Amino acid sequence: MTLSLLYSLPKSLALSFSDILTSYQSDSEYMAGQLSAFGYAISDDPEEGDLWLINTCTVKSPSQSAMKTLITKCKTAKKPLVVAGCVPQGSRDLKELEGVSIVGVQQIDRVVEVVEETLKGHEVRLLNRKTLPVLDLPKVRKNKFVEILPINVGCLGACTYCKTKHARGHLGSYTVDSLVGRVKTVIADEVKEIWLSSEDTGAYGRDIGVSLPILLNAIVVELPPDGSTMLRIGMTNPPFILEHLKEIAAVLHHPCVYSFLHVPVQSGSDAVLTAMNREYTVSEFRTVVDTLTGLVPGMQIATDIICGFPGETDEDFAQTVNLIKEYKFPQVHISQFYPRPGTPAARMKKVPSTIVKNRSRELTSVFEAFTPYKGMEGRVERIWITEIATDGIHLVGHTKGYVQVLIIAPESILGTSAMVKITSVGRWSVFGEVIETLTQVNVKMAPEKLSNQEKCSPCSIQYESCACSKEPEPCSSGSDSCRGQIRLEKCTVSRNDSWMEDGSSKNLIGWLLRRRRNHEHKKVENGIVLGLKNKQEWALGGWGIVDSALLIGILISFLMIIAVIIHLEFRTLLSK
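The structure corresponding to this sequence follows.
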């Protein structure tokens, strides 16, 4: 028996929300794991399925529209149907859900029961539950190297535009012991990244008398000391981490924790934040960003903006633009306001749609003009490699600051860590060349404050010779700085390599070669962002401006050499 597990998230939305919809993806993996363990084959091809299982997300209106389209297709195909996730949980009376089996977000451990009964022709509805699903359910990971670990469900907020609270309810946190137990299990399964997921990570534990720093410190202790498994902390709203900023910064500084955090601001205007009932001010958001970036070297912060929230004036929007310009965040998810039925914001006076679209375009234009990775070219970084890019050619790794690095390397190094030299930078990612894969490393577990940060801030790894200096001498910042976390026996990039690159920058051909390489890398990066999968689309065919300039430069150089030879021969003949 084959089941088709489908997603109501539109492709474009799935790309945009890749960092914040981890709870949704984790639910899908748990359901697939249970059904597989029970003997069902899982397919993402609807034509192969004897039953369709649609997992839904209610964070945005397009997701619900996609769900309605899938339900219509399923009914037309006359296939048994189960709908899971936030939409049926929060909007159980939708007309499209009539006669359909549904399973709520806290009932995913009973998905086999629902599927069995549905195949028998029964309609099943499981929505209410007082306890959380256990964490050790069978699971089929979308990426075998990544464990998405939910630390709580629901939230403490009451945002006027949000439908998720309707679906996932009030805050319910897993105990520290249960989460640490799960971490131990997945590390034994050779998982290389653990993503903590939540509607609001910062609110963790407030319902059970603990806090996020307590959980994070308990998890960090269990991470392998060789740095082979990394922890990524999930999205957190500003209010609940303000009192724990220094403790969270200490964890983000740890060598086995990505120095990355997603903190949605939604608007740069206090008036709009009040209308949204976000429970913080722009000044408090600034405190979060300034504190973390000040205490954690290489810290990367992503944020969200909603354009055109009801009541947003031109002045409000200008404040948002100025905030984004000031901090130049490397990642900003920009969305237009969608009124969600049943929310207070749906009853507010809307901003005209043309204005909303124009504001979204303007802010997107501002954001895309940033060059967040400028200055990384030539740097040596440690990366963790966990997936294949959508072009099918590059592998994807991330630096400690969670900067995406695209490399060309054999798939056998997936799930490993490597040292790479950054060869070029793009808008959304950087490109690198593998120097060596890492096997034996000695990780210093206790995070310490940096000294001489100016000299060694780019270093995430300390060699016997400091990678921050071109001279082969001990690191000037001492053994406990340069992040002082990882020590390797050697670095296979020599100083002469960088010297030759500097020398080549002084001649036209070298400059044109680098320009061509960067131009091709930019084409590849743009294609990956668009999700193109046809390898032919990456072919270098076609002559661009850089290619033509390179050819002309070569021809001019060749002609000049010939001219010099002829001139010398002519002078030799005259002298005779």
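Residues 97 and 496 are 67 Å apart (CA to CA).
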